Recover the amino acids of this structure.
């Protein structure tokens, strides 16, 4: 946007659907929570960004907040948003800044300066980053991935707002998700439902391709095509518990034994590299922790990175980050044997790799191949021998997302979708079990 004679004009040329236009232009209602819920790629985030931009022009309050699972996600989803976020809507009259309250987008509007802070809300202590800050509004990106204490504290920060409006978007959660009962049903919620038909960018041909793929699983069809909340029957790692399987740090009384990496990669598919630490507890049991994940997807970000670029980022940025975080040298770098280009590029960058155990030759009872590895991983989760460690960078956002969508088909076979981080996780479990857990092979 540019400022001219007291008016703000958007320089972007955007084709909106009728649903998006209605959402962007409708009046704001004081003391409300506007929720855009529906299918992935339904155009709701673009509509939400433009509506929020309009609100920032109209509001009298100076400080505002965008919350995502992580600070990086908050930036990617609403500040950048594939060229459709606030940074581009207000192009020419905004700057990325940093002050005592954190990173923010400083916007010049006809009514004065607006500071839009962006922060992460994926763990229970996230609210401390904005505690004490008076806010005019909050935008919750993928609100179902933000912890309830963080949401509640953010809502309290707007009590003195002159026009108290909150915004949220999300893909359909489970009908039992606590955000429904503890947030949506408590606030004055204005809810709207979105499907791919509301996104003018997706062609009819692409819609038919997606429908054919999603039709292979009833859960994915209901959730990702029709945008309905549904009980995720057939979710492979449904035993994962956000309270039991996620920690803020590795307990000090556990002895750190080994650090290793596992990975799965591609150019069209996502690349996922996990940093894992094995510990020994006081009772003699070994535990597996994932402390960080490098994740990239050309199809989801719209940015194509050659395998050589990914390998440089992994070798020169991600691995040093993990060393600085853990103060441990890694013992193994295990990559899916089918991903030879990534292995070759990593080795050109000084990282020697080995092929990961991808269960290609495993047979246990009636289970074969990856089903054996999945059963082992399920056992580690159930016994709480596998845990994620919260981190501010290279977080577990994409892994947690896949956990809710990686499912089996009607015949009990894993559907080859939403499984890039989950495959990398399975390789880590295979290595851990073969080296540290007796009786599970």
């Amino acid at each position: 946007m540019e400022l001219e004679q007291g008016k703000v004009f958007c320089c972007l040329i955007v084709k909106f659907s009728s649903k998006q236009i209605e959402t962007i232009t409708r009046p704001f209602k004081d003391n409300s929570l506007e929720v855009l819920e529906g299918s992935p790629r339904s155009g709701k985030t673009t509509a939400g960004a433009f509506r929020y931009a309009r609100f920032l022009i109209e509001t009298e309050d100076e400080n505002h907040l965008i919350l995502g699972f992580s600070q990086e996600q908050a930036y990617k989803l609403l500040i950048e948003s594939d060229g459709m976020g606030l940074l581009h809507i207000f192009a020419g009259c905004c700057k990325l800044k940093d002050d005592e309250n954190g990173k923010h987008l400083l916007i010049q509007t006809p009514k004065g300066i607006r500071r839009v802070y962006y922060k992460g809300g994926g763990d229970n202590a996230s609210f401390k980053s904005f505690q004490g800050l008076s806010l005019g509004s909050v935008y919750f990106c993928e609100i179902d991935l933000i912890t309830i204490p963080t949401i509640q504290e953010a809502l309290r920060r707007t009590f003195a707002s002159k026009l108290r409006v909150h915004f949220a978007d999300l893909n359909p959660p489970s009908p039992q998700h606590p955000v429904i009962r503890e947030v949506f049903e408590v606030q004055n919620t204005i809810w709207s439902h979105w499907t791919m038909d509301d996104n003018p960018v997706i062609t009819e041909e692409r819609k038919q391709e997606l429908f054919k793929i999603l039709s292979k699983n009833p859960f994915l069809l209901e959730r990702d095509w029709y945008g309905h909340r549904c009980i995720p029957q057939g979710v492979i790692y449904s035993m994962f518990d956000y309270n039991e399987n996620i920690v803020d740090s590795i307990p000090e009384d556990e002895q750190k034994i080994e650090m290793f990496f596992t990975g799965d990669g591609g150019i069209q598919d996502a690349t996922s590299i996990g940093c894992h630490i094995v510990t020994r507890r006081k009772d003699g049991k070994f535990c597996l922790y994932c402390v960080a994940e490098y994740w990239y997807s050309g199809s989801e970000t719209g940015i194509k990175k050659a395998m050589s670029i990914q390998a440089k980022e992994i070798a020169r940025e991600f691995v040093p980050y993990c060393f600085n975080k853990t103060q441990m040298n890694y013992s193994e770098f295990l990559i899916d044997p089918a991903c030879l280009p990534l292995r070759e590029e990593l080795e050109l960058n000084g990282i020697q790799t080995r092929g990961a155990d991808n269960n290609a030759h495993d047979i246990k009872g009636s289970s074969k191949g990856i089903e054996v590895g999945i059963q082992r991983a399920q056992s580690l989760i159930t016994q709480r021998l596998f845990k994620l460690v919260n981190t501010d960078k290279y977080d577990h956002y994409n892994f947690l997302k896949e956990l809710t969508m990686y499912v089996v088909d009607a015949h009990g076979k894993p559907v080859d979708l939403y499984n890039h981080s989950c495959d990398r996780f399975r390789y880590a479990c295979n290595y851990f079990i073969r080296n540290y857990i007796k009786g599970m092979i």
